[in-house]
Amino acid sequence: MWLLNGKKYDCLNLASYNYLGFAEKNSETQDFVLKKLDEYGVSTTSCPLYAGQTELHDELEKCVADFLGVEAAMVFGMGWATNTTAIPALVGKGCLVISDSMNHNSIIVGARNSGSVIRTFAHNDVKELEKIVRRSIIEGQPRTHRPWKKILIIVEGVYSMEGEICRLAEIVQIKKKYKVNFFLFFLLFL
């Protein structure tokens, strides 16, 4: 319901992160949420590294991993923390990050903080991405030409500033063809 000039309008709010309706007062989830607040409190108050995590976090990570058919998954409470902490944990000196030119600033900061060499490809241009991957494998590291310790492609699932969707199937094909690593950042607000 929206009030404008004394008139009430039924509207769909497309500017809210509450698109699943979980934050509505008197919703079907309210009793469940209140019970869990009593049980766990409002928050662990920080990231798992500093404040630990509950069995709910563990259960969610297992559920995500099972859904994706992978060994394990990590779930973070905020996108900035995800990128600025996870990327440096995955790559470092002697590694190469290949990043979409339209990636969020937190990805750029995480990649820079990692100490890796960073190369970018034109937004969603999988042909350019493949050329960079192939050339990087052939040439190796600058000056020494040693093989990279790790090559990590980083893209967003849905680009947060534009709303554009990555070319996931084609990027996964490149990842598999060249046996490189892949970091898909998918920000979901509930």
From TrEMBL:
GO terms for molecular function: pyridoxal phosphate binding; serine C-palmitoyltransferase activity. Gene3D superfamilies: Aspartate Aminotransferase, domain 1, Type I PLP-dependent aspartate aminotransferase-like (Major domain). Its cofactor is pyridoxal 5'-phosphate. GO terms for biological process: ceramide biosynthetic process; sphingosine biosynthetic process. Keywords: Transferase. GO terms for cellular component: membrane; serine palmitoyltransferase complex. The keyword Transferase applies. Residues 10-180 form the Aminotransferase class I/classII large domain. It comes from the Eukaryota. PANTHER family: CLASS II AMINOTRANSFERASE/8-AMINO-7-OXONONANOATE SYNTHASE (PTHR13693), LD36009P (PTHR13693:SF3). This is Serine palmitoyltransferase. It comes from Reticulomyxa filosa.
